[in-house]
Amino acid sequence: MSNNTLTANKPRLSIKAQVLYTIGAIIAAVALPQIFHLIGAASGAGTAPGETFLPMHLPIILVGLLAGPYVGAIAGLLGPVASFALSGMPTAVMLPFMMIELCIYGLSAGLLRNVKMPSLVKVLISQVAGRAVRALAIVVAIYLFNNTNVHVQTIWNSIVAGLPGLVIQWALIPLIAFRVDSIKKNEQ
Known about the structure:
Elements: H1 3-6, H2 15-43, H3 48-53, H4 57-67, H5 69-87, H6 95-111, H7 119-143, H8 153-161, H9 163-187
Helix pairs in contact: 2-4, 2-5, 4-5, 4-6, 4-9, 5-6, 6-7, 7-9
């Protein structure tokens, strides 16, 4: 089996393009949750819309698929930090877990960027990887470091609460990635 059968051979992005993708993903990872938090504040739902629709996750997985593992990992790591610095969200207790989770989303999506498989499968793999590593980090924090600020139940609660967001990611990310790839091909 040749290497071309397994990979899509997408062109390598310039450093300038990678920086722009990273900045764009970080901005989206800060702005999208704020929109959902405003909706939650206006409707009396608080932070529930953000926890339900996972708006910070979408741009990180997408940028990994479009720009590769370095861009995805860096945007995933810095997006929650920028959001926390500007808005206090995610909370300080959850910030390290969000950083780990989103870093893994971006990294895994980026590692799958050139693998020939449906984008939906890439999104699913990235989601499972990010959530699994986040769950592991929470368990380590609780049982190895005696962190009493977070609970094991947080793992299951976030999965259940975020199901609508996962479904939205399944629908939107493959469509957006396909559209961006089509535009890039037409420009070449």
